[in-house]
Structure formats: C-alpha cells, structure tokens
C-alpha cells in the first residue's frame, strides 16, 4: 500500500502570507504521527518563477537541509519557469526542456510530468513527455501500478471560462485546462497499469474520472476557488490551506482524503 500526501499551488511570492500558508501545511505533514511514503507538489510552486521564490520553496519543503521526513516530488505549473525551477529548486543545471521525473516505490511508481507551456496559462503534455511516459512505463515492465501527476486537469471542473469583454470576467480553471486530452485518453487505453491521475491548478479539491481512471485534483495552498454557486468572488483567501492524502492499495485502487491545515 502506497500513501501519498499531495499539495499544490503554493504561489510563493516572497510575501509573509504565502510563506506562512505553505509552512502551515508543511508543519502539519512533518508532524504527522504516522509516516507517508512521499509528498507530491503539483505545480505553481512559485508565483513569478524567480530563483528567489524557488530558494524559498526549497527551504519550506526541506529540499536543501534534509528536513523532509519523506521524499518530496515536484512538477511545474503554468506560473513556474523551467530553468530557475531546475537551478534553484532541484539544484540541477538550468535547462528549458520539460521537467519530468519518476520515483519508484516497492509496489508502485509515481511519474511527475510537466504539463506547462512556457509563457502560457493552459497546459499540454508534449510529444517529448508522452515518449518519456511510455519509455518509463516500459522500463517498469508492468510489474507495478503507476500514478501520473501533473498540473493541469484534462477535464472541465464546472467553473466557466472568461465571458466576452464587457460582460464580466470569470477566469479558470476551465479556460486553462490540459490541451489535447484525447492524446492522454489514448495513452490510458494502452496502459492499464496507470491506476489514476492527480493534478492541481484549480485551487479546489475535486474527484472525478477521465478515460475510465480516477482523476483527483488537489486543493490549493494559497487560496481556494469559489465555485459559481458559492458566490461571485473567485478567490477565497480566508479559507485554510488544503491538502490531500492518496492511498493506492494492493488491488490498485486509488482512494483520496482531503484535509485543511488550521
């Protein structure tokens, strides 16, 4: 059985508010009486994609001092910038290609995929990333189930896109979701070992399906999205930062639980 903590959309920007909200979630996770196997961070880690923001993220997430009690696995979002992300967060040489990584556990694997398009808000898994997913799963020989994690949900979450100019504005997440979802659906058809997908971006906890697999959207740390029936103000900045726990059991079934950091 694999137990994963999941946070998303920290939007660290150098302000005390953003840092403190991220630290509240970090403190809850670091203080758990039981151990989780890893922490997934599904993008928009920085707000402006600067090295300073990623250095702050590395400190908060315990990536430099060994402070994290379990592996911390990350992938970029649309607010992230690949070269500073690699240099200041991952301590790797700066480069502009997709930031993809895999972590193999005893009974499962997690593929952290880059769905960002530099300079754009919407997302896409490009040809290089799809090829990497296929090759990575081939290397696993189908011996263990796998989860895909990336930033942009591939389905509508029922928060409408912007209205035409002059009629008001209602942004994200549906206006900026994952492009070419049919390509992802075809991948899932070929790959029964993929047990589910986890994403971020929407700033609201959500659970649905995509191409017959579980799709779980993690809540946002920086603020929570109000859905249309909850009010006109889009961002609830007073809601406590959220997190999720995903359990992939021995039968390959994904179960998710949502919490807030008070």
Keywords:
single chain; 262 residues; alpha/beta; Purple Acid Phosphatase, chain A, domain 2; 6-stranded mixed β-sheet; 5-stranded mixed β-sheet; 5 helices; 22% helix; globular; metal ion binding; metal-binding
Query: What string gives the helices and strands in order?
Result: EHEHEHEEHEHEEEEEEE
* Portion in beta strands: 15-25%
Count of alpha and pi helical runs: 5
Tell me which CATH architecture applies here: 4-Layer Sandwich
Class by helix and strand content? Answer: alpha/beta
Multimeric organization: single chain
Any idea what the CATH superfamily is called?
Answer: Metallo-dependent phosphatases
Q: What does the largest sheet look like? A: 6 strands, mixed
CATH topology: Purple Acid Phosphatase, chain A, domain 2
Top-tier CATH class: Alpha Beta
Helix residue percentage: 10-25%
Radius of gyration over C-alpha positions, nearest whole angstrom: 17 Å
Shape: globular
Instruction: Supply the number of structural domains.
Output: 1
End-to-end gap: 28 Å
Strand line-up across the major sheet:
4-5-6-7-9-8
Uncertain residue segments: 163-171
Strand element count: 13
Notes on the structure:
It comes from Streptomyces capitiformicae. This is 3',5'-cyclic adenosine monophosphate phosphodiesterase CpdA. Belongs to the cyclic nucleotide phosphodiesterase class-III family. Keywords: Hydrolase, Iron, Metal-binding. With 262 residues, this protein is of the alpha/beta class. It has one domain (2-260): Metallo-dependent phosphatases (Purple Acid Phosphatase, chain A, domain 2). The protein has 5 helices and 13 strands. The strands form 3 sheets. The protein has a 6-stranded mixed β-sheet, with helices on one face. The protein starts with a strand and ends with a strand. Mean pLDDT is 93; it is low at 163-171.
């Amino acid at each position: 059985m694999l137990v994963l903590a999941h946070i998303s959309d920290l939007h660290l920007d150098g302000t005390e508010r953003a840092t403190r909200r991220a630290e509240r979630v970090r403190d809850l996770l670091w203080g758990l009486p039981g151990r989780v196997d890893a922490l997934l961070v599904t993008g928009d880690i920085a707000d402006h994609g600067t090295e300073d923001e990623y250095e702050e993220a590395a400190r908060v997430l315990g990536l430099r001092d060994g402070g994290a009690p379990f592996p911390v696995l990350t992938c970029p979002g649309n607010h992230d910038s690949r070269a500073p992300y690699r240099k200041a967060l991952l301590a790797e040489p700066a480069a502009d290609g997709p930031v993809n990584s895999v972590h193999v556990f005893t009974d499962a694997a997690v593929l952290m995929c880059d769905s960002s398009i530099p300079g754009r808000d919407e997302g896409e898994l490009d040809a290089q990333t799809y090829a990497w997913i296929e090759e990575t799963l081939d290397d696993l020989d189908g011996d263990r189930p796998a989860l895909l994690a990336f930033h942009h949900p591939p389905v509508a979450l029922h928060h409408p896109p912007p209205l035409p100019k002059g009629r008001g504005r209602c942004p994200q997440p549906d206006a900026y979701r994952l492009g070419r979802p049919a390509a992802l659906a075809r991948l899932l058809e070929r790959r029964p070992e993929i047990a589910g997908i986890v994403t971020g971006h929407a700033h609201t906890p959500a659970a649905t399906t995509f191409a017959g697999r579980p799709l779980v959207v993690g809540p946002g740390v920086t603020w929570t999205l109000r859905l249309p029936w909850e009010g006109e103000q889009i961002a609830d900045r007073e809601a406590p930062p959220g997190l999720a726990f995903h359990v992939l059991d021995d039968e390959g079934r994904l179960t998710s639980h949502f919490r807030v950091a008070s």
